[in-house]
Amino acid sequence: MKITNSDILHLGQNKNPPTFQIDPFFLPHFPSMPGLQSIRKRATLRVVSISAILFFVCLAFLHIVFSGTGSSLFYNRNNTYHYEQPALRHPNPNLKAAFVTFTKADTESLFKLRSTIRDLEDRFNHAHQYPYVIFSNEGLSAEFKELVSSSTRHNVLFEHLNATYYGYPDTIDMARANKARQQMKDIIFGDSDDYRFQARFMAGLIFRHPAMADLDYYWRFEIGTKYLTPITSDPFQYMHENEKKLSFIFALYEYHETIPTLYSAVQRYMNDYPGHTIHQTEQDTLWPFMIDPNTESYNNCHFWSNFQIADLSFFKGPAYQAFFDHIDRTGGIFYERWGDPVIHTMAAAVLLRKSQIHYWETIGYQVADQFVHCPVEKSLYKSGICRPIANFDHQGYSCLPKFLE
Ligand SMILES: *[C@@H]1O[C@H](CO)[C@@H](O)[C@H](O)[C@H]1NC(C)=O
Ligand SMILES: *[C@@H]1O[C@H](CO)[C@@H](O)[C@H](O)[C@H]1NC(C)=O
Question: Which regions span the lipid bilayer (predicted)?
Fold first, then answer.
């Protein structure tokens, strides 16, 4: 008897409609004929080798075609990435603001910079078009510049820092600075020149740089940091309308070994300029956040500055610049390891009212793995990627509770 496809399909239930189907493709598997296995193996081998040959022929063809145009399938063959520095363009002439950061030239920095720019664009800037200003002491390749500036549709400017902005000032005793670095090699960045050059630039010199001249506000960001939730209103606008000068997300303790004489240097400044500085006995000051009531000394609390939105009239103004010059002249950046976050925070205590400082509860933000801030507002964390319970703000190392007191 000859078995047909339809017999198989209706196997054992000729009278009823079929409840299952066997794909006719499987039919040849039913009879097991001797020799069939090896025939099948040889056929498979032939198909695989012919496909492989065809694949490589196609690849070679495409390669030849594309290499003529300068961009091969695999890499940019003519190796001419292209970037031309645009002029700084302000989407809102009444609010001249930009994202500002510092980078090194290596590929890891390139990756981190691009991913943070993507976050900023996706979470906020796609709707606002603020430009970016990117400083580096290293020569950035055309590839670096083109890849970074193509991460956003908005203006990206690169600014090279020479030794005036990034290096030792003439006044530093190099032997003393070298000795300090050796003695501090067990503290994070303790033996680093680069940390100190960046700290000095970010603490004060940046505000004298020509690239900052045309800006009223900046949003300082750090490469590799993450923005976790949508930013639904314009923080620059908020700062402007509410007359805020400085803002932060994380507040935490500095290692005391890095700043043993910072507070006494600040006290000297206050004694020298009593009429121009804000004292602990006054109202609406940052001092209760920073002074330990028992020891009456600095409790090492400060605002982290890897995220910082600021009104640049504060940092560029004569009061802050004089304060920075005083700090810079002491040499504490090099003889100890004063960072820009503690310098900025000390200046805020000496020169600003607490009501001029804003804490951004509403911005989801992450530094490295362990420093997470997630807003409590459900609509924000719902459309973001963070868990409020992971908040660093609740941990013992955070100073935020002191600021909110
Ligand atoms: C390389 O590519 C750039 C743009 O992609 C083009 O302007 C330039 O003329 C090309 N150079 C050569 C030598 O083909
Ligand atoms: C660095 O550049 C500035 C201008 O941007 C200039 O005034 C200064 O002399 C330069 N410093 C060095 C060491 O070249």
Answer: 43-66
Does residue 82 line the site of ligand 1, with CB under 6 A?
yes
| Ligand 2 closest atom vs CA 209 | 5
3-state secondary structure of 282: coil
Atom of ligand 1 at shortest range from CA of 78: 1
* Residues sharing a CB contact under 8 Å with residue 384, sequence separation 6 or more, in sequence order: 228, 229, 230, 364, 374, 375
Q: Check pLDDT > 70 for residue 67.
A: no
Determine the Cα–Cα distance for residues 83 and 70; give it in Å rounded to an integer. 17
Whole-model pTM: value is 0.81
**Least confident range of 97-111, 307-321, 381-395:** 381-395
Domains of the chain, residue spans: 97-404
Residues touching ligand 2 (Cβ under 6 Å) are 162-164, 210
- Distance from the Cα of residue 200 to its chain's centroid: 20
Residue 366 DSSP class:
E
Ligand nearest to the CA of 160: 2
Distance CA 367, CA 91 (A): 29
170: tokens are: 């003439």
- Ligand 1 centre distance from Cα of residue 139 (Å): 22
> What is the separation of C-alpha 402 from the centre of its chain, rounded to a whole number of angstroms?
26
Residue located via tokens 């910079």 = 113
Q: Of the residues 164, 166, 201, 206, which should be mutated to test ligand 2's pocket, given the most ligand atoms within 8 Å of the CB?
A: 164
**Tens-place pLDDT, residues 98-110:** 999 999 999 999 9
Distance of CA 269 from the midpoint of ligand 2 (Å):
29
Q: How far apart are CA 242 and CA 235, in angstroms?
A: 10
